[in-house]
Amino acid sequence: MREKIEQLMGNLQQNGMKASYFDTTAEAKNYIVDTIGSGKDVGIGGSMTIMDMKLHESIRDAGNQIYWHWLVNTPEERNTAIDRANCADVYLTSANAITLQGEVVNVDGNGNRVSAMIYGPKKVMIIGGINKICNDSFEAMDRLRKDASPPNAKRLNRKTPCVMTDECRDCNSPERICNVTTIIHKKPGCIGEMEVIIIGEELGY
């Protein structure tokens, strides 16, 4: 695994992204909070990794404003949080898959998460556990279908075939959550800095 991580770090950097690795969630959390500092507007895209880390709480406690639609209740508050997250100083989210070639692969329901990753915020930080590392884009797409989408659909109580079969069937359900798939091959030109942070633990979907 160490060789894979070194290969991944090098390819991410070749693709114009800053790359950081930490053995533990605690180390990564401290680094992220220190890097962001205080007095920032911080947007967050839907991420069980960030929720499980309670990263948003530490960032808020450091004196930053958090915009995350998971933390509000009304549709109006949700829309406001998404809009402000998309133009924040820093945008935090996770990845569904990261290939050894240094590509970041995601599937989204509404598109707000993936759109903010490629356009708007001044700095984007993408967090992923070692379970997200895939050999190539083919394996990454397979991971999206088997490991990412079904548990997310279950979490959201969606009535989709994958909830029953534990595997994406490319359904036509009105409650489908796999509507937008993106691959970041290189750092988008409009993003000031994009950093991928790998943690040596299994995290999220």
UniProtKB/TrEMBL annotation:
Coiled-coil annotated spans: none
SUPFAM superfamilies: NagB/RpiA/CoA transferase-like
Record-linked InterPro entries: FTHF_cligase-like_sf, LUD_dom, NagB/RpiA_transferase-like, UCP020269
Domain annotation LUD: ranges: 5-199
Protein name: LUD domain-containing protein
Species in which this protein is naturally found: Anaerosolibacter carboniphilus
Organism ancestry: Bacteria, Bacillati, Bacillota, Clostridia, Peptostreptococcales
